[in-house]
Amino acid sequence: MKEKDQLDQGEVRQNCVKVLGVGVWTPKDSTNLMCTLEVGDPGFHLSGTVTEPAIQSEPETVCNVAISFDRCKITSVTCSCGNKDIFYCAHVVALSLYRIRKPDQVKLHLPISETLFQMNRDQLQKFVQYLITVHHTEVLPTAQKLADEILSQNSEINQVHGAPDPTAGASIDDENCWHLDEEQVQEQVKLFLSQGGYHGSGKQLNLLFAKVREMLKMRDSNGARMLTLITEQFMADPRLSLWRQQGTAMTDKYRQLWDELGALWMCIVLNPHCKLEQKASWLKQLKKWNGVDVCPWEDGNHGSELPNLTNALPQGANANQDSSNRPHRTVFTRAIEACDLHWQDSHLQHIISSDLYTNYCYHDDTENSLFDSRGWPLWHEHVPTACARVDALRSHGYPREALRLAIAIVNTLRRQQQKQLEMFRTQKKELPHKSITSITNLEGWVGHPLDPVGTLFSSLMEACRTDDEGFPNMGQCKSLEYQHLPAHKFLEEGESYLTLAVEVALIGLGQQRVMPDGLYTQEKVCRNEEQLISKLQEIELDDTLVKIFRKQAVFLLEAGPYSGLGEIIHRESVPMHTFAKYLFTSLLPHDAELAYKIALRAMRLLVLESTAPTGDLTRPHHIASVVPNRYPRWFTLSHIESQQCELASTMLTAAKGDVRRLETVLESIQKNIHSSSHIFKLAQDAFKIATLMDSLPDITLLKVSLELGLQVMRMTLSTLNWRRREMVRWLVTCATEVGVYALDSIMQSWFTLFTPTEATSIVATTVMSNSTIVRLHLDCHQQEKLASSARTLALQCAMKDPQNCALSALTLCEKDHIAFETAYQIVLDAATTGMSYTQLFTIARYMEHRGYPMRAYKLATLAMTHLNLSYNQDTHPAINDVLWACALSHSLGKNELAAIIPLVVKSVKCATVLSDILRRCTLTTPGVVGLHGRRNSGKLMSLDKAPLRQLLDATIGAYINTTHSRLTHISPRHYSEFIEFLSKARETFLMAHDGHIQFTQFIDNLKQIYKGKKKLMMLVRERFG
């Protein structure tokens, strides 16, 4: 084997990653698990036998392995193990590493064609015959066929000079690349997609994407081949057509896989050293996929309304295009557009190729100048596109070049930031009373499909990680220890890659940008923002980084429309709550005043404001000139409101003990938060912080909690809220902690906070409870004052809503005779019109329980006038109330019973209920137990005289009517039940002096009228004759 064709252990190891397994094969792994025998290396071919030691459940196995290589790359492999995988099996790995680590034990041979050339005729014949003998079952048919063709003068094989030699290697002009089993790649991707995200398939697909990036970094041409195979399987996924037909969105994780697919193609077409024919081939393939109907759109299932954003944003008169006429942008659109980009710009080439590229004599200070005032190079390009170049350089194994371009881009952004601040200050002086709400970016950098800020941040952070020797680690990071490495040429004194990374993250997060359309893109904005902040939180802030935070915080507050934290922003700008919370917690220990300014400015949520500024149409780049005025469909509004709530809670916690700041935060919450649920959460948070067990209550914070609770009460008073009862109970608890004056205050103004029912059943009842008195250590005077307020509240509520509050009012006024009488009169006044029989019966029972039987009787008679029980309502819940009312009347005396029976007869048509009442009235004498417990000795009431005669007649009539009603729709399965019903009717009939005759006549009438029901009438005759 020639030196230039020797395999490299690192490259073999990289290409032997077991993507579908649990780890990576290393030389140590393969040595321990494998031993290799009979290795031969003829020319560009390596073959050998690999023995896999026996394990507990498997016997020893021997595999025959053959490997072809060309110019330091394995180009094909075969193994008798039969394992099917995307990458090499363990036996191929073992043989490769054995050859690399023990070259002296592998006998080298010339290519087989050279060996054959040295043989004479006898040797050649012997060689062929021995070969056939050793492998006669495998090669004999082929040998015979070849012999026949060679002996035939006109055969195709005789038309070609020479013969192929698999051990001789490829021509110098032939393509050479690492072996890739394309069929297995397709099968595995198809399998993962068919699993629909289950069994870890999403993770496996992400590992495949990571492998593609690894290949690109090694500048392995298989990277593009493998991504093409993956993409073809993605495009063939049958779910795409199904989702499009049903109009449903693909799952979030699946959508993220498509995003990564598009980003990888962007990297591939931006390869700085790819050939034009390669790019043309990729462009053709990308356009083919892009033209398929089911190709996913860039912004999820929502059509794009933005112009071509890979290139610079349109300006001037051409900016306002009709978005409806633009084609949808797919996940491949940016890669297609990137095919038009090139790397031939001399300024760009100088930037990425040298650390010494400066021009200190350059004094062009225009907006798009090539150098800044220090002579450092700048790179003006659509920011996401410029950052895509950085990603491409990193992905293709050019980390230093990527770092140089990243620094130029960040320096350009910082210069633009300063220019924008100066421009805004000038405008502010010229137009002091005009609200400027321009937005310079229709697409935000955070959440962008190309992730520009994340790319710059990652590139710079990689550069500030150190390896074991303390030098910058430009490739795979070995440590998460971030350090301020020595300054780059184009960094200010004291700056480092770390400070630059942090600053560009803050610039991107603070950018004012419009909220994109569509659920997926809005969720992506939130997700990417949180991911970037999470990475920032891993960095420990030192004095240098704190200066960066201060600098950017001041800029964000003063930069006007260029900042999401500017004084005036557009109503459709992405809110800054999550970012501001991070800034607040970071700055608080170092500059509390600045931290609160940032957090309070960020609290606004203009999309929910009815009078939010709509913008200045005279300014260029204004959002209204491109996106039509509309109320935005903010699908993530609930998440945004929760982040707003989190920011407010963080400020409340930090402001504990500071009266001035607490008042300011309270005002901000009351002004900016529009969700009652979130305000309630903040009220609860403030209450918990104020009443921590290890310290005395913070009365200011308690008052803040109470104020927020009162606001919640007012907001939810006239709306439905399933937590309303919980909110009311909590408010009373909070007011109790604040003090007796707070309880008295909420009762005095109850009508602005509570419904009458809440005020009586929860508020006043809790205030009057013994636990509240004990908790507040109230003296007699204070108790009476609270009780007086509670009684006043109760009477007001009873007047306003007697149906629901009368009973509570009576209960609350029990200890005050005048108030109790007033409450009772309210009940009587409302009884005839506004109260139901259920409410009146309930209050009547209460009155009897409290020792007012005559009042109870009065209310019971009023309740009876509202009641109507039909013949078939024998299980109605009011029956118990009717029986109770009759029992009460019976116990009071004959006159009371005589008065209520006509009401019963009028209201109750159910025969079984009437007969029950009749029976009870005949068991004892009316008034047997008088009002004062004296036992009466009167006679039983006669059924032949009033009032029982009226009740008896009504009962018999009810039985007759009910019988006819039942017979109208009776079925055979109810016959036996009907016979029992007639038996009960007979018992009632017989209570009358002529009852037997009446019942007989009744039965005879039934037989005549319903003679068609023969079976039923037969049963009637059997029982009743």
UniProtKB/TrEMBL annotation:
Domain SWIM-type residue range list: 63-100
Tell whether tRNA processing is among the UniProt keywords.
Answer: no
PROSITE patterns in alphabetical order: ZF_SWIM (PS50966)
Coiled-coil annotation reads none
A GO-annotated cellular component: Cul2-RING ubiquitin ligase complex
A matching Pfam family: ZSWIM4-8_C
Against InterPro entries, the record matches this protein to: Znf_SWIM, ZSWIM4-8_C
GO molecular function: any one?
Answer: zinc ion binding
Q: Provide this UniProt record's keywords sorted from A to Z.
A: Metal-binding, Zinc, Zinc-finger
Q: What is this protein called?
A: SWIM-type domain-containing protein
The lineage, from the top, is:
Eukaryota, Metazoa, Chordata, Craniata, Vertebrata
